[in-house]
Design brief:
binds iron/sulfur cluster; about 325 residues
Length: about 325
């Protein structure tokens, strides 16, 4: 069955204009084909256009963020008496509970409503003086600090793209675990993500291990809250060829007993080629899977690191 026909797609919130809806100030859209055509195979999108939702209309005069004293307000460019800050915040508060069932959110960059970061903030005179998050996006992110979020422009960077999609799949899995969470399930979730975390953030890997060792004695829902917050924070840190090579060598340690000297040498050489940037990550992973078939190991096979997202997205095929 094609993924587009599946009913179990992961749900993401999204800025409506990225889906091609003509909701921008000038009645245009910002359709992003990678999002609809490629990610659309795996994700279903729930669109929000905060500016239309608060009644600004299409087309509409442009608005921007302006620093007034210590405060940032969203005001009309031509008519500064038009202040929509509270309306955008209130709409964010209205949408936030719906986001509890989402596994991620894709925001439109540079928008004073939807931008996730680095949106221009102007002085009252109209000079750019600072940057920040759009007011609607900021409200959603504050209410859901662990929710994976990204902007469409950053998705074009292969490392940021892989990072976001990996976080979405992990967060989605967490949401499923949370439907019947027990101390044993928390240990299982953590155990199966160990090498993933190690590839992102070694200190967090150790800290998460310490947290999970409290399962059974600490209050479970408090522990889960601390765990997911730390985990999602750690996963934002980008992996590097060095950290992946470290993980691959660790994994190899679990199966090397059964491997011949030549096979071990070959795998180590391929890991090194990857570390030096000569081949993509998919190559040592594929070779490791091959040796894993010859020398099965339940622990390594259970690691989500081996299959973090659908192969068809080809997120590990870049150098
Ligand atoms: S960036 Fe946000 S507010 Fe602007 S058109 Fe797109 S969805 Fe609407």
């Amino acid at each position: 069955m094609k993924n587009s026909e599946r009913e179990d797609k992961i749900t993401l919130g999204i800025s409506s204009c990225l889906l091609g809806q003509k909701v921008r100030f000038d009645s245009s859209h910002k359709h992003n084909r990678y999002i609809t055509d490629t990610l659309g195979e795996y994700f279903e999108f729930v669109p929000y256009c905060p500016e239309v939702a608060i009644g600004l209309g299409i087309p509409r005069p442009t608005i921007r963020m302006v620093k007034i004293g210590d405060e940032v307000r969203v005001r009309g460019v031509k008519d500064p008496s038009q202040d929509v800050t509270e309306s955008l915040k209130n709409y964010g508060e209205e949408v936030a509970p719906q986001c509890a069932s989402f596994s991620g959110y894709l925001f439109k960059s540079k928008s004073p409503s939807c931008g996730m970061e680095r949106v221009k903030i102007y002085s009252e005179k109209g000079d750019p003086m600072d940057t920040g998050a759009g007011v609607f996006a900021d409200t959603i992110m504050r209410r859901h600090p662990s929710l994976p979020v990204e902007e469409e422009g950053r998705l074009m960077d292969s490392r940021l793209r892989e990072n976001f999609i990996e976080r979405v799949f992990i967060y989605h899995r967490w949401q499923q675990y949370m439907q019947g969470m027990t101390s044993a399930k928390l240990v299982e979730f953590h155990t199966r993500h160990k090498f993933t975390v190690l590839a992102h953030d070694e200190p967090a890997y150790r800290e998460l291990g310490r947290l999970v060792s409290e399962a059974g004695s600490a209050n479970l829902s408090e522990l889960c809250e601390r765990y997911i917050e730390l985990l999602m924070q750690a996963l934002k840190r980008l992996t590097t060829p060095r950290t992946h090579a470290n993980v691959l060598q660790h994994m190899m340690g679990f199966i090397k007993e059964g491997m011949s000297r030549e096979d071990k040498q070959e795998l180590l050489e391929v890991i090194e080629e990857y570390r030096l940037g000569r081949i993509p990550l998919i190559v040592p992973i594929t070779l490791l899977k091959h040796y894993l078939r010859l020398h099965p190991n339940d622990y390594i096979e259970s690691q989500y690191y081996m299959n973090p997202h659908p192969r068809e997205l080809m997120l590990r095929n870049h150098i």
